[in-house]
Amino acid sequence: MEEAVLAAGNDILSKSVTPVTRIQIDRNKPDGVLGKFMLDPFSDNNIKQIIPISAQVDVNEVSAALRKAMKANKLDTIFEFGIESPTPHGINIQLSSRNFVERLRRRDVDSALYQEIIVPLADNLTSPTMEVLHVFVPQSSFTVFKSLGWMIFGSIVFTIIIVTAFALTIRTMLGQKKLSEIKSDFINNMTHELKTPLATISLAIDAIGNERVMENKEKIRYFSGIIKEENKRMNKQVESILQSALMEKEELTLNLQPIDVHQLITHTIDNLRLQLDGKNGRVELQLNAIQPILKADEVHFSNLIFNLLDNAIKYSKDNLEIRIATSNTRKNLVISIADNGIGMSRDTVSRIFEKFYRAHTGNVHNVKGFGLGLTYVKAIVDAHKGKIRVESIMGKGSRFTMEFPQE
Predict the structure, then answer these.
(1) Average pLDDT over residues 301-313
(2) How far apart are CA 193 and CA 182, in angstroms?
(3) What's CA 121's distance to the chain center, in Å?
(4) Phi and psi for 392 in degrees, rounded to 5?
């Protein structure tokens, strides 16, 4: 910018008239062809006077010179200018743009926003008539941002709001997509889980209707037992869904009463004896808790233990080993259930308590369920003001450790 203003000053000087000599009138010479205004160029009586630059150019010429120089330097053509000359009484403005006087008056108030460039327009030897060009141009500075503080702050806040709204929209869309996939998986699983016992019951009823079976009480008893077991299975599945709905509405109520956790664990293992025998499994009990009495809801707490053991049986190979241990801390009862099953990955461990989430077991759908079992377990543990943590290694097994306060 300084180079552009200096170039404009030189341009103005080059367009100005060469200093002239004022003619001395000699009244003693007779009037001739040249009259009495003849000039003697060798006379010392001639008085030389320099015409001021401001008298040789106008506002438009100065403005055009400045604008041309700034465009040549690829600068914005925003400026205020004035040509001043010193007088015995101070500075006298000879020529100026429209807002130069106001800009000059406010120089001490907001000078940080502007840069003043001064270019001499006369020879220093003629200091009595020396003129200078003052040009005010905006300069890039942090103070510019400071002066636009509220506008910039509002723009930043508005931008943050837009970005946040966009991020929330994307997040909602992804969440809706995930919910849609979960819903589809749940409907497929539920249809399969309910269709299987219904088909079994239908076959058992058809078998009972057979004349040869009707004459055989043992077969009728056998098929009736199948119908009863499949009915219990369906009731259990429906109960799981209803329990999930209650947990979602936070309407789960507990009937708290003192229960013996050791007896409850033993009773649950007896109920799962057939499933354990099917996997050639055994249960090792290390019930070392000195105080096994816990104030809990017997039904829900029994379901909690049942779900954990049922998962250990489902997600395991043959020769299953389950170890159940209990102990007391200063204020808590600790229950640990470990198995040597297929284990879980780190990602699965972080998501097993999510509703409807089911770990992938490959292309073979050999484990049935809705993905509600561990969600229910977590809800029951939280309802009893307890804590649960999971440790698992792929191919080696898993351990669920629960702590419940004993009041």
Answers:
(1) 85
(2) 16
(3) 59
(4) -155, 145
For the chain, helix (H) and strand (E) counts, in that order, are 13, 13
The CA–CA distances, whole Å, from 231 to 17, 63, 191, 197, 199 equal 116, 98, 15, 7, 11
Q: Please state, in angstroms and rounded to a whole number, the distance separating the CA atoms of residues 321 and 327.
A: 20
CB atoms within 10 A of CB 160: 10
Q: Phi and psi dihedrals of 69, rounded to 5?
A: -65, -35
Mark out the alpha helices in 260-339 (DSSP H runs). 261-271, 273-278, 298-314
Pairing of strands 80-87, 132-138: antiparallel
Orientation of helix 149-208 relative to helix 217-248, angle to 10°: 170
Please tell me which residue, 187 or 258, carries the higher pLDDT value.
Answer: 258
| Largest CA-CA distance found in the chain, in angstroms, rounded | 168
pLDDT (0 to 100) of residue 251: 57
Distance in angstroms (rounded) separating the CA atoms of residues 242 and 372: 11
Please answer whether residues 174 and 148 qualify as being in contact, where contact means their C-beta atoms are separated by less than 8 angstroms. Answer: no
Across all residues in the chain, what is the average pLDDT? 77
pTM for the model stands at 0.46
Long-range contacts of 144-149 (CB under 8 A, 24+ apart): 144/113, 147/110, 147/113
